[in-house]
Write a structure and sequence with these properties.
The chain is α/β, with parallel strands linked by helices. The protein is built from ten helices and 27 strands. The strands form seven sheets. Strands 22-23-26-25-24-27 form a six-stranded antiparallel beta sheet, with helices on both faces. Strands 3-2-1-7-19 form a five-stranded parallel beta sheet. The longest helix is centred in the last third of the chain and has 16 residues. The structure holds flavin-adenine dinucleotide.
Length: 403
Amino acid sequence: MSGILIIGASHSGVAAAAALRTAKYDGCIKLVTQENVLPYHRPPLSKEALSRDEFTPTLLRPASFYASNEIDLVQGVKIVELNLEERHASAENGDLYSYDRLILAQGAEPRRLPPSVDVGAVAHYLRTHEDLAALKARLSAARSVVIVGGGLIGMEIAAIALAKGLEVTVIEAGPRLMERTVSKSIANYLLDRHLNKGLRIRLGSAVSSVRRDEDRSVDLVTLGGGEQIEADIVVVAIGAAPHEKLARDAGLKVENGILVSEAGLSSDPAVYAVGDCSAWYDPDLGRHIRNEAVNPGQDQAKIVASAITGTELPAKRLPRYWSHQAAIQLQMSGDVNGIDMEAVLNAPASGAFSVLGFRSDRLVAVQTINAPQQFGKLHDMIGMDRASLAAALDVEFPPPHHH
Ligand SMILES: Cc1cc2nc3c(=O)[nH]c(=O)nc-3n(C[C@H](O)[C@H](O)[C@H](O)COP(=O)(O)OP(=O)(O)OC[C@H]3O[C@@H](n4cnc5c(N)ncnc54)[C@H](O)[C@@H]3O)c2cc1C
């Protein structure tokens, strides 16, 4: 009996296995991961787990969960080839896993600086538990750090390093921080807060090389204009690329993620994909969207489980994301790309406020700072038009700030 094979046992793969059992799937489930620790939460790696001296991975599920749900968790095994015709996957160690249905939950890996820029590979990246252990060891002995990339993860690491008393410089190629994920108002607020705390931030600066000066035991970061910054350690957080090679080599359709339908089905009728490795067709937008966050992958896992078992589809939910930067708690929902107007509720100076992002007069994104209750309420209002929203919230929006 072949059953269901899931490749990747992190947030999305484990959620898929759990959702299949909840949907009363009673066949075999094999969950294969190349990592050697029990599946763990990834977000704390740039938050609590990085700031605390001692840490153990926070497990996604207790060890007993897999046995009691008859989920066969295979650790430390890398799948290197898929045979879609024969319906089996081969591992690096020569093992063969056959399946009736395959779910790809392979996630993403950090985008690397090209070898022409990272001369001698001195830079650190943060994606896995092992990366964290290496980074913590280096940070504890460092006095200064350069962080390449002013996205969410880069800024979380920056805030923690600063709180530990290090001299921290963030280098961002784009014109502002967190451009892909947060609205202008939030980016400006965070920029101010971080600068006030003493963080050095260089916007619009490309890194042309990172190399080690062994004599002086420092890393040298050269910017496009020729300026050099010295640091004890360089951390690179410039986004993540989906693990899609396995799928592409097998002939599945891939384009910035494994392309799947609204139900998570790939171009092969027995293969589904969920989480960071997958790009889901969005009928409202008429194109595929790849999310890189915990909640959307878990939602997708439930959709795939119901597609496989023929059970009722879960209600559609919008992607949600969170970030902690020092004492600032950011929550986000919807899509800030393409918003043409922002309105701010409550004064940013109060330290707790919300930003509403509109596209063609409709609410498409909600982002809050230290306002979890307001987030919950506003999240459910996404899709409303501006006038109805103003009436429902009993507010008059401040004059629109058009992009
Ligand atoms: C430092 C950091 C902070 C983050 N903070 C947040 C946050 O605050 N909020 C949020 O929502 N999201 C956050 N994210 C993003 C979130 O962690 C990801 O969206 C989430 O982990 C995606 O889950 P996934 O299961 O799809 O993929 P992944 O977590 O990437 O897991 C995929 C797994 O598959 C394994 N795998 C891949 N290929 C193979 C193969 N061929 N054979 C065997 N195994 C394989 C990988 O090794 C990995 O273990 C953060 C990410 C990082 C790195």
